[in-house]
Design brief:
heterodimer; A: about 325 residues; alpha/beta; six-stranded mixed sheet; four-stranded antiparallel sheet; 10 helices; 14 strands; B: about 280 residues; mainly alpha; globular
Chain lengths: ~325, ~280
């Protein structure tokens, strides 16, 4: 089966910073594929390369088996792109924004009208379709952006940090839509994210750090790399405490900010022993959880997903 | 001619069909951008009011202020309000171009232009659509401002309207092209303001808008002769008197057709430069 997107050795440098470094992966039809990494990992640069906003220094990518050429608009017809900062015009109404979106893909008038009607109903924006978008909430703008992108029936949807800054209910409803689309239309989705919850919705995840792809696998298999359970100890002087925990319980903890975390089989049995081993006040809290994709990232890179890579690209 | 060859291979027909369809995207994109700029303009009342009142104030205040001292050799009866009027027409195009293309800076990173950039259309459609939007807004303001032309000494019946509107349209393409190029290259609003006031404002002052091309100093006359805007003002002035009249005094004395071609050429150049700037990914 031909991949919807095949990326080969894609690279891009900004001055001294190698923002994307020899990236290769492929996305299969109907797959939800996530690029997971902290800010500065090269996700946004990758997004810009794949949407033709940036030219790569090296490498290439194929859309439905055809080599993508940024100067040839035809390769962009079947790709829908939603931006982190929605590309909507605040001065115009929701309906007008959708009309412009339909026009950019040269949809015939009657078809566009029909689709816009459906889009407004599905997104729950129908009642406010005549209002200027600058009065919309962040979640509503994202919904409008998504509906606008969907008007052209893209085969591949590329989303940049689609739910960043959304509250829990907006996050849920956004993913309900994406999952429904995949089911109904067999749509393929590529997204960038630094949110481990979001990554859980992906069929496969490519873990990015410093412009490189570290591993690419299903969330389940990635989680298996961590094994056991994860203990997170929060403390003021995390570095110091980490050494003591390491020697006393023969584990290999990773420090990230004021958090010390490590994995172990049946880790929950350790919790009382950790608490009892140190005087009151040295430890702020101790938690146990099943490994998340954030733990996977920490295990692979030694750094947390929330931490920004120091030499982050703008 | 030879119909058998025209049918040729199916692959070739496929390509020509696809080429046809990309042209639809280009047209649609130009239209979307043009309509969008007009809608935005007409929805902001303060912008409309400002756009109409500003040139009028500029003309009356500066024009009255200088009218006591202004003397032009060979045309003693010419008042400054009359002399300055064509310059204000250029100023309207200039300010509108700066204002509309400035929006490219933010729009491109967190606005609607992002959607245009990833759409099937080319960057040329982007430049043309944005330029036509700005130029149309300018033309709307100009037509309203031209209603006061009789008070400046230009009876509406004498004006050569088709040529005047064409040259104003071309001037719009010149200045929006430059504005787009600068906005794309500079990328920050503060930097854009700085460059535009250093570059475009002098271009206006030295266009014959405020004073005629002098005999002395020669260097000033040379700069003005190299300034494409000088020819815009000259043709605008000529059209206001009517093309049947003698060429207006204080200009370069260039033939009308040559001036017109120079303006058209510069419009193509400005649009081309803007297109080249945004054509490739950075």
């Amino acid at each position: 089966m031909t991949s919807v997107l095949e990326v080969k050795n894609l690279s891009r440098r900004f001055g001294n910073l190698q923002a994307v470094d020899g990236l290769s992966f492929d996305v299969k039809p109907g797959e939800i594929f996530g690029l997971l990494g902290p800010n500065g990992a090269g996700k946004t640069t990758t997004f810009h390369l794949l949407t033709g906003l940036l030219a790569p220094d090296a490498g290439e990518f194929f859309l439905n088996g055809k080599k993508a050429d940024p100067t040839d608009g035809r390769s962009r017809v079947s790709v829908g792109v939603a931006f982190q900062k929605p590309s909507v015009d605040g001065k115009l109404t929701g309906r007008e924004n959708l009309e412009m979106g339909a026009a950019l893909y040269a949809l015939p008038q009657t078809l566009a009208k029909e689709k816009i009607k459906i889009a407004l109903e599905r997104s729950g924006l129908a009642a406010r379709a005549g209002e200027a978008v600058e009065k919309y909430s962040g979640g509503m703008r994202r919904r409008l952006e998504l509906e606008r992108v969907l008007l052209s029936d893209p085969k591949l949807l590329i989303l940049d940090e689609p739910t960043q800054g959304l509250d829990q209910s907006a996050f849920r409803s956004f993913w309900d839509v994406i999952l429904a689309l995949r089911k109904e239309r067999g749509m393929t989705v590529l997204l960038t994210t630094h949110d481990p919850r979001e990554a859980e919705f992906c069929d496969r995840i490519a873990v990015l750090d410093k412009g490189r792809l570290l591993v690419c696998d299903t969330p389940e298999k990635l989680r298996a790399k961590v094994g056991g359970e994860v203990i997170v100890v929060e403390a003021e002087r995390a570095g110091e405490l980490s050494g003591e925990i390491a020697s006393r319980f023969s584990v290999s903890p990773v420090v990230s900010g004021d958090q010390i975390s490590f994995e172990k089989e049946k880790a929950h049995e350790l919790v009382p022993r950790i608490v009892e081993s140190f005087p009151v006040g040295r430890i702020r809290s101790v938690q146990v959880h099943r490994p998340t994709l954030a733990d996977v990232f920490l295990k692979i890179t030694g750094r947390g997903l929330e931490q920004e890579t120091t030499e982050a690209a703008a | 001619m030879n119909g058998t060859q025209a049918i040729s291979s199916p692959a070739e027909t496929g390509i020509s069909m696809e080429e046809e369809s990309t042209f639809r995207y280009e047209l649609a994109t130009v239209w979307v951008l043009l309509v969008r700029d007009l809608r935005r303009f007409f929805r902001q009342r303060s912008r409309i009011a400002g756009a109409l009142i500003q040139p009028l104030l500029f003309w009356l205040i500066l024009g009255s202020g200088f009218s006591g001292t202004f003397r032009m050799e060979g045309s003693e009866g010419l008042g400054y309000l009359e002399y300055f009027y064509p310059g204000i027409l250029l100023q309207v195009v200039l300010f509108t171009s700066i204002f509309t293309t400035m929006s490219v800076i933010e729009d491109r990173n967190e606005g609607f232009l992002q959607a245009v950039l990833v759409s099937p259309s080319s960057r040329l459609a982007l430049v043309l659509g944005k330029s036509l939007g700005g130029t149309s807004i300018a033309l709307f303001q100009l037509v309203l401002f031209l209603l006061v032309a009789p008070w400046a000494g230009f009876p509406l019946g004498d004006i050569s309207w088709p040529v005047l509107l064409t040259v104003l349209f071309l001037t719009g393409l010149c200045l929006t092209g430059i504005g787009f190029f600068m906005a794309w290259k500079i990328g920050t609003i503060a930097g854009y303001h700085a460059i535009m006031s250093v570059l475009l404002l002098p271009l206006w002052v030295l266009s014959g808008a405020m004073f005629p091309v002098p005999d002395d100093p020669a260097w000033l006359a040379t700069i003005m002769r190299f300034n494409p805007m000088t020819y815009c003002v000259e043709v605008i002035r000529w059209c206001l008197y009517g093309l049947g009249a003698l060429p207006p005094a204080g200009g370069t004395g260039i033939p009308l057709l040559t001036a017109f071609l120079l303006i058209a050429l510069f419009a193509v150049f400005a649009q081309g430069v803007a297109w080249l700037a945004c054509r490739k990914g950075e």
